[in-house]
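User: I'm writing a tutorial on reading structure tokens. Could you give me a worked example: one chain, its sequence, then its tokens, then a sentence or two explaining what the tokens reveal?
Assistant: Sure. Here is the example chain.
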Amino acid sequence: MAIPQLRNKQVLITGAASGIGRASALAFAREGAHIIASDLRLEPLESLQQEVQALGVNCLIHAVDVSDEAAMQAFAALVHAQIGAPDVLFNNAGIAYLGKFLDSGLEQWQRVLKVNLMGVVHGCYHFIPLMLAAGGPRQIVNVSSTASYAPSPSMASYAASKFAVAGFCDVLRMELDGTLIGVTDVCPGVINTAITTSGAAPSMQGAQLQRLQDYYIKQGCLPEVVANDVVRAVQTGKTLVLTGPYSRLLYHLKRISRRLLFKLTLSSATKIGYL
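And here are its predicted structure tokens:
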């Protein structure tokens, strides 16, 4: 549901301490929106709070683990007591894991799915009822990925989590049809964040890891690109955001020829560093 005017709206962002989340908090704040920012720890959010408040809007910060259902339930109740229902719920928190399927433990699968999928589910489950009760146009923004339709080798758990988020967005959009709540699926492409330097690829070493790091640094766009696209999507009610390098290209290529996309992805995997 389009929200053209964001001034004095309440925007809640998970995973706001860095990357796309932090950039989005500042982008929404520049439009005059008040920010509720959460992440695992408060300390990294304190500098964000100062930057947002310097733009003349309010910023509340909270430490919460999106994978913890009880913690998210308590978080929703606390936010509701503080500001009411958010106008925009941005389920951004996520983690990456890169490694061949048979080289990865099941504990990595559980961790990725708990954060990337269940974190989104928890946010929607506990905030949507508050948003429905409050009425008025509101927007849910969930982050999937280009990997939700064009994954690469070594992305098994990550791609599975993002495929699930994309499907969840489609179903949620249908179930909320006829209400004043819209659903946006954000699919970032190659983003220059700490994805390859934060322990996300523990089985990759040496030249392979260096190739992957170089690829994200040279080919990736800044998180601010995604953030600006997210703000525009909320203002226009856009349901699908293809943002960042290769996102749109790969989306349309898959629609034209799944076989060609498979061949191109596999042939470039070693050069990039996925294999």
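What the tokens reveal: Residues 156-175 form the longest helix (20 residues). The longest strand covers residues 181-188.
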